[in-house]
Here is the input.
Amino acid sequence: MTDLSRRKMLVGAAASAATLGVAAARAASFGNPDSPPEGRINGKSPTSLDEPGPQNPVLASQFPSFQDPPATDVNGMPLFWASFNNAHKRFQNGGWAREVTQDDFAISQDISGVNMRLATNGVRELHWHQQAEWAIMLDGKCRITIIDEQGRPQVADVKTGDLWYFPPGLPHSLQGLGASGAEFLIAFDSGKATEFNTLQLTDWIAHTPPDVLAANFGVPAEAFKNTPLDNLWIFQGEDPGPLAAAQRAVRSPKGEPAHPFIFSLGDLPPARQTRGGFVQIADSRNFNASANVAAALVTVKPGGLRELHWHPNADEWQYYIKGSARMTVFDTGPRAQTADFRPGDVGYVKKSLGHYVQNTGDTDLVFLELFKSDRFAEVSLSDWLTRSPPQLVMEHLNITAETLAQFPRDRPDILPV
Ligand code: MN
Ligand code: MN
Here is the structure.
């Protein structure tokens, strides 16, 4: 639609709205026409805003932007909100896990997420899977073991804020350490992947004929008479001892992996910092092993805004760690929908759809942006507009040169600059 025809339509809509007696509704939506009229502001008759049916006020109160969407919203988009807070937990002696996959969260085609707790010395058993595994430590300490396809092992300990990346098919294990064990978030580079359906050491041994086991390992078949018939998945292990001893025990003449499978994101200097907050980025350019997952850890101070932007290379899967936020996603149509996020919640933005994330609380907002890509990439709206011919931009937005000159330059990422 051209600028002119849109304006004609808006004027026409305003005239008919006045005829219907709801002109006051439009006056309240300055600069952003409530068109089509579908916000709460349209409800003028005495009972149009009532909710006489069943309600759960505690749950509803968590979603102010669903209860009362901004007048700029236009509905019709798939749900882009999910949460670990209402995900079913599987408990075992040694820890627990819960997940958000595409089965429950239809939009999340590129990434599924797992939130796992390992008790002190609790072990996630030796296993592998067909997807890449990216993870960030949320609390405590954890020991990882892995071996690559060239027979080069790595054993390492990670702490809060550290990452690991296990390429598809490489076998690994995890173990909680110290008095408080570990809690972490795992992301697989497929929305269909699940932590409850992996290739596990105990399963394979239990489902291989004993004579084949004997021939394969060069020991009598009876040696396996006590191996578990059901997989362990998560179990309570023993203290694994000092890291150096474990590293000595696995040392191989093939050496160590070309690139470490762990990375300290929390300790990384910000890629960008403003008065409004900062962004730390880990992708294959600095975390070399992370060939198919790129991550940004974003901290937004109270009153701050992660600027209007989009990502040209991949869908964005978000995990909210601290604070509270609201995000509006802008799609063709035009459509735009707003949702609220709290710790443990998950957001999803399809490739190249516009969005912002606003801190709605009075504490720091911290969240992760994950992409199924080798690199983080972003286009900033203000950067685009301040690097386009000024007259062109002024003609689009009906703004003055003075106004345009005040727009932030050079991709601030987080406002205020
Ligand atoms: Mn795994
Ligand atoms: Mn984004």
Summary: The chain is about 20% helix and 35% strand. Residues 6 and 12 are 10 Å apart (CA to CA).
